[in-house]
Automatic annotation (TrEMBL), chain A:
Transmembrane segments: none
Cofactor(s) the protein needs: thiamine diphosphate
Coiled coil: none
Keywords: Oxidoreductase, Thiamine pyrophosphate
A molecular-function term among this protein's GO annotations: oxidoreductase activity
Limits of the Transketolase-like pyrimidine-binding domain: 11-186
Biological process per Gene Ontology, one example term: sulfur compound biosynthetic process
InterPro entries assigned to the protein according to its UniProt record, in alphabetical order: THDP-binding, Transketo_C/PFOR_II, Transketolase-like_Pyr-bd, Transketolase_C
Name the record gives this protein: Alpha-ketoacid dehydrogenase subunit beta
PANTHER family: PYRUVATE DEHYDROGENASE E1 COMPONENT BETA SUBUNIT, PYRUVATE DEHYDROGENASE E1 COMPONENT SUBUNIT BETA
Automatic annotation (TrEMBL), chain B:
Lineage: Archaea, Methanobacteriati, Methanobacteriota, Stenosarchaea group, Halobacteria
Single biological process term from Gene Ontology: pyruvate decarboxylation to acetyl-CoA
UniProt-recorded Gene Ontology molecular function terms: pyruvate dehydrogenase (acetyl-transferring) activity
Full protein name: Thiamine pyrophosphate-dependent dehydrogenase E1 component subunit alpha
Protein source organism: Natrarchaeobius halalkaliphilus
Domain Dehydrogenase E1 component: 22-321
Cofactor (UniProt): thiamine diphosphate
CDD domains assigned: TPP_E1_PDC_ADC_BCADC (cd02000)
The UniProt record lists the keyword Oxidoreductase: yes
Length: 330, 336
């Protein structure tokens, strides 16, 4: 994985989240966490475990089951001098906090004339392949990325989780951090130094010449696996990690597309109106004369995520599908 | 309203035995699926209702087939008490096409709209507005149907609860909210979910909405039954909504796999003394409504029923992958 040069240590994504938030809370005592069972259990995926012991339950605060006030009170606190980090257990529950997100968090700074800092982070997770059925399984980053006024990042690797989370906590704007249940246990080296990845900057995770794959979260891991598999067949695949989808680093993505002339975009959002459409449009606009073939889109089929394993497997793309799309283009 | 005292003498022996059977069926179903989940036969999450059987049973005993209910993530007990078929429930838990939702819903989403069961729900408080709508519809269609929403003590913190009961209060809807106070919301106790002034009586949340407020022992199926009968009577006769708090305890973790680190020593054992699956059979046997042998027969019969349900689930087919695309819209059409 691309990362800053220097020393690194191997960690799983889940541990990186815990350590990074711990570092940020140590650095700045205005940073606090709120959410359901964040102390004690350590949040829904136990990721925050132990932070309550280190920082106390004043800064690692259990909220009642009240998404509206969880998100809205973070906004109020951010507007008045604190730097909240909210955990919303599953991204579907963002729906409960709908007004606060769409009409309040996203619009407050702008409507008030652009002077107000709103340093708040909302962490939530996309879930796929967990047989949890439609309310607990979905990816929704495209939904919030469609709202001007919100920054939306998608974490994928241990290194980008650290760099992006630090940037999010230190940002003076509201940042939605979408994690992914399928990558929490993925391990890779993480630079030990204190660093931030710019929000709005993509990364080339693997260099290649023949085909570009733009992929997020677990699909990034699948894309890297696909690239590895195809390398032995002599197909050289470039893999781009957008890191943030709003704002989107069109430059890096378009540059890669112009180099290879062939692109697959893949993500866990539904195919219709998912991020794939935006990525594909950006590539087509920026690299039209260099494209050999139209951009291929891969995503979840346009149905709510079903419970049964046979049904769920059917609608979520994986490494095999990415390989097929690449072969179609190559 | 008729008084509760009058009623308790009226509970017929057969009704009492029916309620016991329902509780045994819930307990047996849950204990078996708990094991099957541990054996990794059942995918997804599992939230068990063990310990709370008296609540679903007492409430549903007071309803008729024409009433509606909405349930929660902890919904197996509500489904069984409503009379849903354990074969089809088990099949749904296994993700098979013979399940109530053809494998699309799983444990947290079992529904049988034809039976008035408008769904378990993975969203805390998600069912309350839906029940409110069913109550509104009952009123607008000029029927005497009522709608019952089961929800946990944690759900009282959600806006959906307050908005629904406000609406129901203003419109005097035939809505019953059943607060299942099992002492916890996920892994934190009641006191982290509610202010001190609400802890002793969670129905206080209904006060501004003008609902009738009742608190009952959720380990006592007859008390729950009687309280619900009164509230149903009132709702059917145009008297508006009620909130019933059933005070009980969750014997298992929030979901299977929960280490239960948060449970104080001895608390579970203390509540188990009041396990309705021991106290109620003892009571019925003590009062001569049932014999020891009669009870053993009920247990054996239900054990066999649940065993069959699991076999049915196991032997059923997984849905054909193509079925993933069916059922999104009424015309069968797909989203482009
Ligand atoms: C809107 C929403 N927020 C959070 C959750 C996660 N969650 C599932 S069950 C639960 C606890 C519910 O507690 P309570 O209402 O008391 O019901 P109990 O589990 O005790 O039966 C939580 C927080 C959810 N499913 N939906």
């Amino acid at each position: 994985m691309s990362a800053t040069a220097g020393e690194s240590e191997e960690f799983a994504v889940r541990d990186v989240i815990n350590r990074t938030l711990g570092e940020e809370m140590e650095r700045d005592d205005r940073v606090y966490i709120q959410g359901i069972d964040v102390s004690g259990r350590g949040g829904t995926s136990n990721i925050l475990k132990g932070l309550d012991d280190r920082f106390g339950t004043d800064r690692v605060r259990n909220t009642p089951i009240s998404e509206v006030s969880m998100v809205g009170s973070a906004l109020g606190a951010a507007a008045t001098g604190m730097r909240p980090v909210v955990e919303v257990m599953y991204c579907g529950f963002l729906g409960v906090a709908g007004d606060q997100l769409l009409n309040q968090v996203a619009k407050m700074r702008y409507m008030f004339g652009g002077e107000l800092d709103l340093p708040m982070v909302i962490r939530t997770k996309n879930v796929m392949g967990a047989n949890a059925a439609a309310q607990h399984s979905q990816a929704l980053h495209h939904w919030l990325a469609a709202i001007p006024g919100l920054k939306v990042v998608c974490t994928s690797t241990p290194a980008d989780t650290k760099g992006l989370l630090k940037a999010a906590v230190r940002s003076d704007d509201p940042v939605m951090v979408f994690e992914h249940g399928g990558v929490y246990n993925r391990k890779a080296p993480v630079p030990t130094e204190d660093y931030q990845y710019e929000i709005g900057k993509a990364a080339i995770e693997r260099r290649g010449e023949d085909v570009t794959v733009v992929a997020t979260q677990n699909q990034l891991w699948n894309a890297l696996e696909a690239a590895e598999r195809l390398a032995s067949d002599g197909i050289s695949v470039e893999v781009v990690n957008p890191r943030t989808i709003s704002p989107l680093d069109t430059e890096t993505i378009v540059e890669s597309a112009r180099k290879t002339g062939r692109c697959v975009v893949v993500d866990d959002t539904p195919l219709s109106y998912g991020t794939q459409s935006q990525l594909s449009a950006v590539i087509s606009e920026g690299a039209f004369w260099d494209l050999d073939l139209p951009v291929k889109r891969l995503g979840v089929d346009n149905v709510p995520i079903p419970f049964s394993p046979t049904l769920e497997d059917e609608i979520i793309p994986g490494t095999d599908e990415i390989v097929d799309e690449i072969l179609d283009l190559a | 309203m008729s008084s509760q005292g009058e009623r308790s003498e009226e509970i017929a022996d057969q009704e009492r035995i029916d309620m016991l059977r329902t509780m045994v069926r819930i307990r047996e179903f849950e204990s078996v699926v708990q094991n099957k989940f541990a054996d990794a036969e059942i995918p997804g999450f599992l939230h068990l209702y063990i310990g709370q059987e008296a609540i679903a049973t007492g409430v549903c005993q007071a309803l008729t087939e024409r009433d509606y209910l909405t349930s929660t993530h902890r919904g197996h007990g509500h489904c069984i008490a409503r009379g849903l078929d354990t074969d089809k429930m088990a099949a749904e838990l296994y993700g098979k096409e013979t399940g109530y939702c053809n494998g699309k819903g799983g444990s947290m989403h079992i529904a049988d709209v034809n039976a008035g069961m408008l769904g378990a729900n993975g969203i805390v408080a998600g069912g309350i507005p839906i029940a409110t709508g069913a109550a509104l519809s009952a009123k607008m269609r000029d029927t005497d149907e009522v709608a019952v929403s089961f929800f946990g003590d944690g759900a009282l913190s959600e806006g959906a609860f307050h908005e629904s009961f406000n609406q129901a209060g203003i419109w005097e809807l035939p809505l019953l909210g059943i607060i299942e106070n099992n002492q916890y919301g996920e892994m934190t106790g009641l006191e982290e979910h509610h202010p001190p002034s609400a802890l002793d009586d969670l129905t206080i949340y209904g006060e501004p909405y003008g609902v009738t407020r009742i608190q009952v022992d959720g380990m006592d199926v007859e008390a729950v039954y009687e309280a619900t009968l009164d509230a149903v009577d009132q709702a059917r006769n145009g008297g508006g909504p009620s909130l019933i708090e059933c005070v009980g305890y969750r014997f298992e973790g929030h979901h299977e796999g929960d280490s239960q680190f948060y449970r104080p020593d001895g608390e579970l054992e203390e509540w188990k003394q009041r396990d309705p699956l021991s106290t109620y059979p003892e009571k019925l046997i003590g009062e001569g409504v049932l014999t020891e042998d009669g009870y053993a027969e009920i247990e054996a019969e239900i054990e066999a029923e649940i065993e069959d349900a699991i076999e049915f689930a196991r032997n059923s087919d997984y849905p054909d992958p193509q079925q993933a695309y069916e059922g999104v819209f009424s015309d069968g059409g797909e989203q482009a």
